[in-house]
Amino acid sequence: MELGTLVSLTVYFIVMMGIGVYAYKKSTSDMSEYMLGGRNLSPKVTALSAGASDMSGWMLMGVPGAMYVSGLSSIWIAVGLTIGAYLNYIFVAPRLRVYTEVANDSITLPDYFENRFADNSRLLRIISSLVIIVFFTLYTSSGVVAGGKLFESSFGLTYEAGLYITAGVVVAYTLFGGFLAVSMTDFVQGCIMFVSLVLVPVVVLFELGGIDEATAQIASVSENMTSLWIDASTGQALSALGIISLLSWGFGYFGQPHIIVRFMAIRHVSDMKVARRIGMSWMIVALAGAVATGLLGLAYITKTKHSIDDPETIFIYLSQVLFNPYVGGFLLAAILAAIMSTISSQLLVTSSSLTGDFYGAFLRRSASQKELVLVGRISVALVAFVAVMLAYDRDSSVLTLVSNAWAGFGAAFGPLVLISLFWKRMTFAGALAGMVSGAVTVLIWVFSDFTIGGEALSSVMYEIIPGFIVSTLAIIGVSLATGQPSQSVMDTFDEVDKSFP
């Protein structure tokens, strides 16, 4: 490894650990502070923290890799995500911020579900916690896989060593600093990602000699590379269903716990508009940079007649060959930032479920706040260890792992969160039916042996679509078939509703 690269990465690691120490001293005295930062995040930290925890290693590795292989037809995912993120800020963010505070100061999503429907059976808490633990462990594993690939391809380390280094640094600052550390590091990491995703495609374009030369090099690979309607990797036209499947990634936003928990933590609902403007501006530029990196990276590889073994490492390759070691180290830090920001958020949400929704709710109801924080830290380390074990399959595709987990959350929680914030008539039974049916539909769609026309179900249609539809129908149908919610539940809804004339 070049000295400059080592220096840049060392500085990055020191900054992350420093933030963890600062957060440890500032806000880890009780569960509300450790898991939600005392509901005191500023708009800019909320926006960049939500964006950075959302756009994980898949944005700097998965998206450029998809563009490199399939061409511009893969952009439909980015379009769907942008629309979904915007709608999430409009419909979910403000109401969820108010509702979680009014509903007995809920600090986790399962906590909100239980309080929203006055669920004395605690079934909503248990099942939603299980969904979070299962899908987030898989999701966290995708980030660790990305970290392993980064260290293997860039630093000459083994894939396994990369797994442990990635997980180790994230666990250190998350375990001690809690939500405040995660949010503050996300803010810094979001800034690094933004600069990198502007810098790399601009420099590559300059190296290629301009847009015309870049376009010519891309077209020399295949004229389909610049088509919105043809997958260049197969030469086949995208069907309407295929485009809808790619756009449907946007549905996932309504049910991603690690993203919407940021909305619960903003200091005031009136700050949400500023957060939305910052967050959406950041996201549009960052996604455009990721798309451009994949296409321009292909043009550069074609022109120089070089080759790469894994398309998902194109950003890494460009950072190594086009920049001096100090800047290259900064760019590699951007990938680590993307990976670590998401892993830390997912670890914390999973830890909150294990601690508050299982340990504190069932095993030790009399546990002190100090004890709960300690258990939360142990849970962070435990989940990280399981994720590393799952990540030992080095052939795992980052984008595939993310897509499965994204669909699971989107189907299980998306309709539940969205409808619960706007429909007073929704019942506990409807919520339970929607959550279970959505999660099960996704699992069947991904793992069953059923086929359509000889193709696997997930190849025909992205699993979030049937999962979201089934969950929505189950919520509405079962709610209408069961009795009215209790008066206290209706009164709480009315109290929240008055805040949004």
Automatic annotation (TrEMBL):
Q: How does it sit in the membrane?
A: Multi-pass membrane protein
Transmembrane segments annotated in the record for this chain: 6-24, 75-92, 123-141, 161-180, 187-206, 237-261, 282-302, 314-339, 372-392, 404-423, 430-448, 460-481
Q: Where located? A: Cell inner membrane; Cell membrane
Q: Which reaction does it catalyse?
A: L-proline(in) + Na(+)(in) = L-proline(out) + Na(+)(out)
Please classify the protein's predominant subcellular localization into one broad category: membrane
What are the UniProt keywords, alphabetically? Amino-acid transport, Cell inner membrane, Cell membrane, Ion transport, Membrane, Sodium, Sodium transport, Symport, Transmembrane, Transmembrane helix, Transport
The cross-references to CDD domains, in alphabetical order and at most eight, read: SLC5sbd_PutP (cd11475)
Q: Name one Pfam family in it.
A: SSF
Q: Which InterPro entries match?
A: Na/Glc_symporter_sf, Na/Pro_symporter, Na/solute_symporter, Na/solute_symporter_CS, Sodium:Solute_Symporter
Which family does this protein fall into?
Belongs to the sodium:solute symporter (SSF) (TC 2.A.21) family.
> What function is annotated for this protein?
Catalyzes the sodium-dependent uptake of extracellular L-proline.
- UniProt name for this protein: Sodium/proline symporter
Task: List the taxonomic lineage.
Answer: Bacteria, Pseudomonadati, Pseudomonadota, Gammaproteobacteria, Alteromonadales
Gene that codes for this? putP
